Amino acid sequence: MKNLFLLLSVFMTFAGFSAKAQTDTRILFVFDASNSMNGYWERERKIEVATRLLIESLDNLADAENVELALRVYGHQTKHIPGQQDCDDTELVVPFAEANNLVIAQALKRLTPQGTTPIARSLEKAAEDFPDDKNVRNVIILITDGIEACDEDPCAVSKALQAKGIILKPFIIGIGIDDKYKSTFQCVGNYFDATKEESFKTILDIVVTQALNNTTLQINLLDESGLPTISDIPFTLYDSKTGEILYNLVHTLNYKGNPDTLNLDPLFTYRMVAHTYPEIEIDELKLTPGKHNTWDVQAAQGSIDLSFGSGRSEYSDLKCLVMKDGECDLVNLQDFGTSEKYLRGEYQLKILTSPPTTIPKVIVLANEVTEVKIPTPGVLFLQTGGNGQGGIFRKVDNELELVKKFGDVNPSGRYTLQPGKYFVIFRSSTAKQTVYTIEKPIEIKSGSNTNLRL
Fold this sequence. Notes:
Low-confidence stretches: 8-23
Structural class: mainly beta
Largest sheet: 7 strands, mixed
CATH topology of the largest domain: Rossmann fold
Strand order of the largest sheet: 6-5-2-7-1-8-9
C-alpha cells in the first residue's frame, strides 16, 4: 500500500544578497492525482484530505505580498493500466500569477485520480515552469501518496538540477511510511512522520511558512562577559551541504545597540565563518522556521600592538607572521607599527627582521592590548673590492647562523640588521685559494651605523 507524504523541494539561485525585508517568492504546488490517491486515510479518501488541507493553505496565502503561485498535476490524464503506465502524465495546470489561489483551488476540486506516479519526471518538468528570474526565490511543494513508479531516480534528478546551479532542498512528510521507503528519500531531503491528519496539517503549515521565508536571525558575538557587544566583523554563510556561498555580510549593531536582525532562508543548514584572527567556524547551524532565531558565538578579542623600542626604524615595510602558539598555520600577516585584534589566546610571532625575530607565547587577553616591542635595528655599510662569495652570519650560543648570503656579485652596500654580534666572511672571486677567505667580527648597535671595508 502506498503512503501519503509531502515533498518540498526548493530551487534557489542568488545573484547577491539583498537587504530588503522580504524576498519575492514563487511557489509551485506539484500535486499527485494518481490512482492510489483514491485510497482511504482516516476514513476519508486521500485525494480529499490532501485537497482540503492544501486549499486551506492557499487561503492563508491569499494576502501574502510579492508571492506568485502555480499548480502542476500528475497522474490525472491517463487511466492506470498495469504494464502500460503513462510516465509523461504531468501537466502545468495553472501557470504562475499573483492572487490566483482561488483558481488553483477550483482546479484541485476538478481532479480525478486515475494514473501513475512519475515523481522524478514531474520534478524535472517543474524546474522549467519558473520564469527565468534569478532574483526570485523559487519553491516547489510536491504532495504525493507514493514513491517513484516509473523506474526513474528522484535523487539523480536532484543531482542534475544542482549541477545546473539549482539548489534542491526537499522536506518529506509521511504517514506510516515503511522504513525502506524512508531511506529512498534520504538523498533528496529531510523526513517527517505525520501519523494523523492533524499532524499533516501542522507540517504543511510549517512548510508554507518556510516557503514564505518568515524566519529571522540574530547573531550574538559574545565578549568576555558573555554579552553581545562585539560587532563590525565580516562573516560568510555557506550552504553546509554543498559548500556554496549564500551570504557575505558585515555584522552590525543597530541603533539600539543590539545585533541587527537578518531575514534568512530556513531551508538551509548553514556553515558560518566569522573573519576574525583566527577565523571562527561553526558548521551545521539550523534555523527554526517562522521564529526569531539567535546564534551565540564566542568572539572575545584583544589586540597585538607591534612597535620598536625606541628611535626610528630603518625598515620600510616590515611584516610579522602571527600564528597560534605551537601551530604552523598562518593566522595573519601584520604590518609592523600597527595594532590588530585577535581572539583571546596564545600566539607565536615571527617578525621578518634581518635576522628574523621569533617571540613565542604571546598572550592576548580580552579587551586588552598586548604590546610587542623589539630593538631598533642598526645599519652595516659594507665595502669590498669586487665580486665574491660568503655572507653575513650571526653568532648565537657560539654557533654561526647565516643571515645574508653573498652571490657571485659585489656585496658592497647597506644592510639593516638587528642588534647583536656578527661575522662577515668573504672571499674575492679573483682569489682561487680558500686561505684567502676574510673573516671580520662586527657588532651592530641599535640605531647606529657600522662601517666595514674588506
